[in-house]
Amino acid sequence: MEFSHVPVLLEETIEHINPKAGGVYVDATLGGGGHSEEILKRADCRVVGLDQDEDALNHAAKRLALFGDRFIPVKSNFRNIKKVVYRLGFDAVDGVLMDLGVSSFQLDNPLKGFSFQHDGPLDMRMDPQNPKTAADVVNTYPEKELIRIFYEYGEERYAPQIARAIVKRREKKPFTSTLELAEEIIRAVPAKARREKHPARRVFQAIRIEVNDELRSLEEGLVGAVEVLKPGGRIVVITFHSLEDRLVKNFFRREENPCVCPKDFPACVCGKKPRLKVITKKPVVPSREEIEKNRRAHSAKLRAAEKLSLA
Length: 311
Ligand SMILES: C[S@@+](CC[C@H](N)C(=O)[O-])C[C@H]1O[C@@H](n2cnc3c(N)ncnc32)[C@H](O)[C@@H]1O
Fold this sequence. Notes:
Blueprint: H1 10-17, E1 24-27, H2 34-42, E2 46-51, H3 54-63, E3 71-75, H4 81-87, E4 93-99, H5 104-108, H6 134-140, H7 143-154, H8 159-172, H9 178-188, H10 191-194, H11 201-211, H12 214-228, E5 229-239, H13 242-256, E6 276-278, H14 288-293, E7 301-307
Parallel strand pairs: 1-2, 1-4, 2-3, 4-5
Antiparallel strand pairs: 5-7, 6-7
Helix pairs in contact: 1-2, 7-8, 7-11, 8-9, 12-13
The structure holds S-adenosylmethionine.
S-adenosylmethionine (SAM) binds near residues 33, 51, 53 and 217.
């Protein structure tokens, strides 16, 4: 299959990462390698490219082979960023990029099971070594858990109706394919909800987040990224839904203003020092032209912060 992932907010990412000659940058979500390629073109630097999907990693490694040892591909979840960076022998890095979610390549490949529009196995694992698949979630989770996941990770208002329909149907025959599930979701929601965006979109997102433990990975990845950044180094995160964006915004805020002392204390006694300065007071969003050219960009939000030198 041809890899045709168009990097989102490319120019804005480069501007915020600000690559410099001699620098080391971690592209924590390598995907098709579009952002990495641009960083490598803009400065005589090195890029460590992480992806938990080996297919994506191999493909990007071929594309970026022309950069020789300036590009270092590593198969890993970015929650392990600190271990990866230290194992490669770097003490710290000059920038970290996270462009979250799945790539067009993963989404368009029915065999990965991410799409509610193409039939495929109910898989949704970015890392095929992850033991939990979407089928496990759909066929074995208690109804209450399904409701929680659909509400929390999908912000799906018909979560109870959809969970009920899934449980009833799986008692007769477990789900095996993406279209079977998508059709059951469509049947479970009221007619008016069927006229909005595809009714399965939010539930598929929720299951994908659960299967890949995306929110916990993100939290751990952000903590690790701040630890491996040099003072003056930048972290740039591109999110595609409000849960991720809120998580990143709150993380940056806490790192910028971590003091937990009561407001009426004359001086700080908690001793927590800021580690980041937020550069994007408001998230950077794509232009109308970019959204017209690349539908995937429509919900993208970029936030960036700089590591402070500790006093
Ligand atoms: C949106 S794509 C990145 C696209 C890339 N920036 C480009 O220009 O082609 C996200 C990629 O990150 C990977 N990914 C998502 N979460 C990850 C995680 N926690 N650890 C490592 N890779 C992850 C996915 O497998 C996918 O290939």
